[in-house]
Amino acid sequence: QLQLAESGGGLVQAGESLDLACVASGHHFASYTMGWFRQAPGKEREFVATISRGGGVADYVDFVKGRFTISRDNAANAVYLQMNSLKPEDTAVYYCAASLSGATKLRSGSPDAWGRGTQVTVSP
Fold this sequence. Notes:
By secondary structure, the protein is mainly beta. It is built from one helix and eleven strands. The strands form two sheets. Strands 2, 4, 5, 6, 9, 10 and 11 form a seven-stranded mixed beta sheet that branches. The chain has a four-stranded antiparallel beta sheet with strand order 1-3-8-7, with no helix packed on it. The relative contact order is 0.32.
């Protein structure tokens, strides 16, 4: 099973950009569908984006489409989330997730592995 570690969070102003990274340790990273979730204070964790094993197919929740881009580098055991035009409502802890069972199970919130999260704070 993979172990996931996120990095890249921080404090930015509205309209700015931030890039998150998630590095996996373990075997067969390329066998996992990868994704990002987030959890804002007082709210449930919600799906943000997912990317297929080979990186050719990405899917996003509506409120980040056109602003966020998910990508992966299987040689580096890493998945990334590029976030542009950030808004205060994007403030949350962002989590990396991995699923051997594909995007549907991952989107349902039942992946095989979670990272510990990285805080993103967007000031007005």
